[in-house]
Structure formats: structure tokens, C-alpha cells
Amino acid sequence: MNLHLLLHIMTLKKVAILFLSLLLSPLISTSQNNIDSLFQAKVTQVLKNKTQTHQAFNDAFDKTKNDTLKMQYLLKKSRETNSLVGESYSLNQLGETYRNLSLYNKAIETHQEALEKAIEADNVVLQVISLNMLGVVYRRLDVIRTALDYHKEALDLAESVKPITLELKHNIAISQNSMGNIYLALKQYDLALGLFYKSLEIEKELDNKLGLAINYHNIGYAQEAKGYFDDALINYKTSLKYNNDIDSDIGRVICYNSIGKIDIQKGDFDEALPIIETALAKAKIINDKYYISLSYSNLGLIYLKTKDFKTSEKCLNEALKIAKKFNLKSQESETYNYLSQLNEELRNYKTSLEFYQQYVALDKSITNEKNFQYVSDLILKYESEKKNNQIKALASENEIVKLRLIQNRKILLLSLLGGILIVGFFVILQTQRRLKDEKKIVTLEQEMLRNQMNPHFIFNSLNSIKLYIINNEKENAVYYLNKFSKLIRKILIASTEKEISLQDELDTMTLYMNIENMRFSNEINYQTYIDDKVNPSVIKVPSLILQPFLENALWHGLSSKTGEKNIQLHVSQKDSDYITITITDNGVGRSVSEKIKSQKKLKRKSVGINITKARLANFSKGFTNDYKIDIEDLFENNKPSGTKVIVNIPIKTVVLKTA
After folding, report:
1. Contact, 483 vs 649, CB < 8 A?
2. SS3 for 48-107, per residue?
3. In which domain, by residue range, is 527 found?
4. Closest CA to 10 of 110, 123, 154
């Protein structure tokens, strides 16, 4: 994200904030006259110090940084003395207070101004802090991409400074923690846990109790989402302990809500109720709208579970009103979900459905797959940039050493030439490595295609045709020999192409089933159905991708079955992202098939399905969505009655040119 562009995003909103400041200025001036003389003396002393740093301001004002009037006084005096560091520090403290009061637009404006002052002062620490602060505000608003951009920019900037100071190390931990919170919002819990543990190690090294409290809570949240309630509860209580140590009311509110939520999920409503009520009371005292809404929402859930529907509706409506007013999307989404459950209990099914649809739509807007793709791309980009920066840093240090040791032009030129040769060597090495990887991919694709058709199938088919010839069934022999030759030709063509049209794939499978049916004395009833809205000629799929599923249906499902033997292949398109292919047989089912297979003396390990999955994974790399394979066991009167395989393949449409 362009930093300088971001500094001008909120220009129009600044007018409104300036107007508000003008209205409040008489009150602020009057209040500033009441600032105690001890604090005024401290401000004068710090501003006179020529070696002004963020650490110096934080050491002096750490205990009063949450006092808005005192920070306003510090900001006023910093402007009078032209202390850019003082301005940036006080603006960030004010912005954090506005954020905790859910005045998000004002918080963004204040942090933006703090960032401008930090850039003007060329103070990297304050730039990193301001970027992280902006990321936190946008995360509260569920504006995921913008939040992630700010935290990543803060992390890049902090890691670019050598050596890394303790302050920068602390801010690296903040960036990692915040990016972990974004992964939580996107329900990428394992990625989130990885970042939280990294941040936790830094906070342990710095013995920062606030950072420890935050990370332990976030680890608990991710564990709760994964269903590890006992582990989550331990981490929530550890977080609460650290919040008590630092006397953080906001921290206690967060922990009370989380601990209460665990009790709700365990069904301990009597224990949950007083905890959540305490959280709500404290949230109202500190006036944090997000956690007021969250507490009301949790209370509504408790009353819903205990069948007090009237009180539940009252709490949930209050939570929704606050969430909507302050644009708290994730909280609004969760409340819609609870209201849907409430109306279902009240048998207001239409209202329940409407709330559920609102919940799904809002949740999808927060955690949509474009955000997932964006996050994944950003991770790769970040890792690549980080390594490149490390290489550049090492090259720069190496060049400095050379310049110090080498004093004449001839040696300098030789050194530069050596550097070029080294770079060239690395380029060649990288190119060779890339070509080797591409060769591996091609080789794997060829091996997978060779394995698609079992060699035994070819020999058995030829033997079956030979029997027709021996028995003087010339018409059958010619018919199946034509089918067999067409199938072999299609296999050879497919082996040269990674993708073919779905129509070609279906035609090939029809030939394959005709040949296999010959070995079953034509007992197999194979049928293909294609939905009207599907045009298989313009849909691309990996070649010979369906054969392993049909082979399994034949030899594991129907070979041991007596009576009618059916296989149906159905092509449909339920949404624009996938083509769905369903293969259904009325065979003996997987459990019976496995039992029969275990009794055979000669056992052959099938790798067809695994190869198919690998090919689909490689094919899906060009799409936002991945492939999906589901296998369902069918039952009739509690007895196995067949198997259904559902293959969802990501698609792209090829526009046919008209003559």
C-alpha cells in the first residue's frame, strides 16, 4: 500500500474533526488550566531534552498516557516547541483512547497525523507504532486488507533497522500478534497460532505483561475455535492473571467474556451469567462499544439457552443496535446468528431465515475467499521480500567492508566484477533449480497419465476380443476391436495434453465402460446425465480424471454383486466456481468391498485415487478455489446399497470462436 496515498485518504473527514475540535477547544483550554503543576514541570523538562525519543516520552508519561486532558496538554506544548516526537507520541495515545471509546474515524485521523509527524521527524520507532495503531483500528472495523497492509508495513519497517532495538522488537511482536488476529477473523486458526507463539516468545524475553496477557488470550481464542475448550480456558485464566497484575480493566472485560463463553459452550449457564454481567458492567464504565455489544450478545445467548426468550431478545437487539451504529461487522454477524436461533426457538421461521441469511452474507463478506487469496499472496510476497531484504543487507555490508579494505580503483573494479560473477552464478543456479522443478512436474504428470489405465485392463480386453474371434463371433470381435482402438487412440492423445474438454473426457469414459462391460457380459447399465445449463464442450478438466472412480465402482462395488448392476454419471453446475460430477453405483458398498479384499490372497495396492488427487491439486493451482472430493456410503433399510463419489472441479470457460 502506498504510504503517502494513505496519509491523504481521510482529508474530507478531517474537516469534520477540525470542526468538532473548534467546538470543544474552550472546554479543553479551561481543563488544561487545571493540569497540576507537577505534570506541567515534567512536560517542560522532557521537551527541553535535546535527545527526544519515544522511550523517553513513554518513561515519563506511561502512567498518565490514558489521561486525555494531559495528553492534550502535552500535544499543545509539543506544537509550541516544535517537538515532532512529542506530537507523534501524544497523538498516538489520544488515538488509542478514541479507539477504545469506539470513535474509530477520529482514531484513524489522529493516528494518521501521528504517522505524518513521525515521518517528518524521521523517527522509525514512532512510524512503526503509528502503522500498528492504524492496523488495529481497521481490524476493529473488520477492514481486513487495509489492516493487514498497515501491520505488514510496520513489520517490514521494524525489521529493516539493524540492530533491532528492544522497542522495535516489541513492535515486531505487536505486528505479529495483530496479523494473527486477522487470521483469526479469517478462521485460519493454525496460521494465527503460529504468529501468536512467535509474538509470545518476544514478550517473554521483554517481560512485557501486557503483551503476555494479549497473546495468551489470543492463543486461547484460536484453541476455542478449534474445539480445545480446556486448553483455551487455561490460557484465558493466564491472560486474566496478567491483566490483574497490570490492573487493566479492558483486559479483564475481554477475559471475562471469553471465560463466560467457554462456560456457555459447556452448558454451565449459572457460572457464565455473573461473569458476563460483570464484563458488561466494566465495559460500560470504560465505554468500549465493541465489548459492550459483545457482552450484550453473550448475555442474549445465555438467556436463549436457558429459554428466557424475552430477555434474550432484549439483550441481542441492544447488541445489534450498538454493532450497527459503530460498524462492528463481526459482532453484527454473530448477533444475527443468535437472533436466528432465537426466532427458530419461537417458531418464527421466516424471521429466523432472514436473520440467518443476513448472518451468512455478512460473515461471507468478512471471510470471503478473495481475502483468503489476498492473505496467501501477501504471505508469499512478505517471505520473498524479507529474504530479498536480508540478501540486500548482507550485500550492502559486504560492499562496505570492501570499500574500507580496498583503496585503489583496480581492486575495486575487480571486486565489482567478482560481485557480478557471483550474482550471475546465483542467477544461473536459480534458473537451473527452476528448470529442475519444472522437469519434475512434467515427469510426475507423465507418470500419472501412464498409471491412469491399468495394464491388466489392456491385456484382459485383448483376451476378451480374442475369445470372440475363437468363438467365431466376428461382429462382436469387430465391434469391440473398434471400440478398443478408439479408446487407445484417445488415451494416447490425452497423454500429450494436461487438459481436455469435459465432452472428450465423457466420450472416453463411455468407451472405457463399453470395453469393461464386455468383461462383465454386458451386465453393467452405465448411464450419463448432463444438466441442461452445462455445456461440456467449453469446460476444461484434467485428462482421464474420472477413470479411477469408474474402475473402483466396477471392481470394488459391482464385481462381487449379483443382480442388477448400475452406474450413473451425473454432470451439474451448482455455482459458477465448480463443475460437479457425481458417480453413483448400486454395488456392495465400501465396508463389504474392504472385507472381500482382505480375504484375497493376492493383494494389489491401488494408487489411482491418490494420483488423481495429486493431478487435481496441480490443476487447481490456477484457480481461486481448490478441488473437492466427497465419498458417501449409500444405505437402504440400514444395509449398504452402493457408493456415491462427488467430484467438484474448479472451472474456467473457453469462448468458442464462430466461423
Report:
1. no
2. HCCCCCHHHHHHHHHHHCCCHHHHHHHHHHHHHCCCHHHHHHHHHHHHHHHHHCCCHHHH
3. 453-650
4. 110
Written as nine digits, the cell of 348 is: 418464527
Question: In Å, how far are 177, 226, 249 from 212, measured between CA atoms?
Answer: 11, 21, 16
Please say whether the beta carbons of 525 and 565 come within 8 A.
Answer: yes
The Cα 9–Cα 18 span in angstroms is 16
Give the CA dihedral 140, 145, 148, 149, nearest 10 degrees: -130
What the block records as the C-alpha cell of 122 is 524521521
**Domains held by the chain: number:** 1
DSSP string for 507-528: HHHHHHHHHHHHHTTT-EEEEE
pLDDT of residue 3: 34
In a domain, 491, yes or no: yes
Q: pLDDT by residue (tens digit) across 131-153?
A: 999 998 988 887 878 888 898 88
The answer to whether position 597 is within a domain reads yes
Q: What is the pTM of this model?
A: 0.45
CA–CA separation, 619 and 182 (whole Å): 29
**How far, in Å, CA of 252 to CA of 247, rounded?**
8
- The dihedral sign for the CA sequence 58, 60, 66, 68: negative
Is residue 338 over pLDDT 90? yes
Nearest 5°: CA angle at 405, between 403 and 408?
Answer: 70
Contact criterion met (CB below 8 Å) for 153 and 1? yes
Q: What is the β-pairing status of strands 499-501 and 540-542?
A: antiparallel
Q: Strand 499-501 and strand 565-575: pairing?
A: unpaired
- DSSP reduced 3-state for 642: strand
Q: Are the beta carbons of 311 and 296 closer than 8 angstroms? A: no
| pLDDT tens-digit map of 475-515 | 878 888 888 888 888 877 777 777 889 999 999 899 888 88
Question: How far is the C-alpha of 542 from the C-alpha of 497, rounded, in Å?
Answer: 8
Please compute, for residue 414, the number of CA atoms within 13 A of its CA located in the half-sphere on the CB side.
6
**Does 297 map to a domain?**
no
Q: What is the DSSP letter of 296?
A: H
Which helix (DSSP H) or strand (DSSP E) does residue 585 occupy?
strand 578-585
* Under 8 Å between Cβ of 151 and 179: yes
Specify burial of residue 306 (Cβ count, 10 A radius: 0-12, 13-18, 19+). Answer: middle
Cell 442474549: give the residue. 300
| Site of grid cell 448472518 | 359
Query: The C-alpha cell of 213 is what?
Result: 496477557
The grid cell for 320 is: 445489534
Burial class (CB in 10 A: 0-12, 13-18, 19+), 461: buried
Q: In this structure, what CATH number is given to the domain that contains residue 497?
A: 3.30.565.10
646 Rama class: left (phi>0) / alpha (psi -120 to 50) / beta: beta
- The amino acid that residue 210 corresponds to is L
Is 195 inside a domain boundary? no
> Has residue 204 got a pLDDT over 80?
yes
In sequence order, which ranges of 121-208 are alpha helices (DSSP H)?
124-140, 144-159, 166-185, 189-206
82-86, 227-231, 354-358, 408-412: least confident range: 408-412
3-class secondary structure, 653: strand
Work out the pLDDT band at 569, boundaries 50, 70, 90.
very high
Q: What is the pLDDT of residues 517-559, one digit of tens each?
A: 887 888 899 999 999 989 999 898 888 889 889 988 888 888 8
Write the DSSP assignment of 539-561 as a string of letters: BEEETT-SHHHHHHIIIIIITT-
| Residues 6+ away with beta carbon under 8 Å from 263 | 269, 271, 272, 275
